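Hey all, sorry for the wall of text incoming. These are the two entities for the joint prediction.
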Amino acid sequence: MAPAVSAAFLSSLVEAVEALTIVLSVATVRGWRPAGLGALAGLASLALIVLALGPFLDRVPLHALQLVIGVLLLLFGMRWLRKAILRAAGVIPLHDEALAFATETAALREQARHHSTRLDWLAGLASYKAMVLEGLEVVFVVIAVGAGRGLLVPASIGALAACALVAAAGFAVHRPLARVPENTLKFTVGVMLSAFGVFWTGEGLGVPWPGEDLAILGFAALFLIVALAAVRLVRSPAVKALP
Amino acid sequence: MKTLIGIFRELAGLFIDDGLLALAICVVVALAAIVAAIAPAVPIASGIVLLVGCPGVLFSNVIRAGKR
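and here's what came out:
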C-alpha cells in the first residue's frame, strides 16, 4: 500500500504546485473571484469525471484493466522520468515556477489589453484549464496505482493530502512555491510510476511476478539505477563525442 | 473549440512527449505480448522482456537525446 500512496502523494504534489502557479497568476491579474470560480469549476469537472469513471472501472475485466493501465503508466511514468533525467543532466532547463508565474501573468496582461471586457472569462478559463489538466494527471495516477489492487481510497487520500498541503502553503505565502524540488519529485515519481507500469503490464499479460507486490520495489530500484547511470553518462562530455 | 482542441492536445501530451520513446515502449509491450502468446508455459519470459526492454529503451532514448 505504501508505494501506491507515496506515488499518489508525490505526483499530486508536483501537479498541485503547477496548478497553484497558474491560479495565483490569474488572481494577481484579475483578482480571486475569477481565479477561485475557475478553480472550483475545474474541481467540479474533475469530480464528475471521477464519478463517471468509477462504475465503468468495475465493469472492465481485471486483466484488461491491468494491461491498459500498465501501458498508460509506462507511457506516463517513463515520459516523466525521461524529462527528469534530461533536466538533472542539464540537457533541458529545470522547470521554474517563478518564471512560469511571470510568463502566465504577462500573457494574461497582454490579453487584458485586447479583450478588457471578456477578461474575467479568460482569466477564469485559464484557472479552470489549469485545474482540469493538472487534476486529470492526479486522477490518472490515483486510478492507475489504486484500481488494480483495491487501493483507490488510500491513493485518493494521499493525493488529496498533497493538494490540501499545496493549497494551504499557497494561500499562506501568496506566491508560487518555487522552492519545491520539483525535478527531484518528478524523478522519484517517474521511477515509481515506471515500476508500477512494468508490474501492471506484466500482471495483465499473466506474468507471475516473484514476491508479488514486493516486486514493485525491485523494479523501482532497477529504474533508479538505470536513470542515475543515464544522468551520469549524459552529463559526461564524452557522450556528446559518440557517433 | 480552440480551448477544447488545446485540452485534447494537452491530454495526448500526458502520455506522449517524445514520439520515439512512446513507440519504443509500445514495441516492447507488443513483444512481451507475443512472447506470452507463443510461450504460455513460461509466463515469466514476457516479464523478462518488459524488465529488460523498458529500462533499455529509456536509457537509449536519453543517451540519444543527450548527444543532440
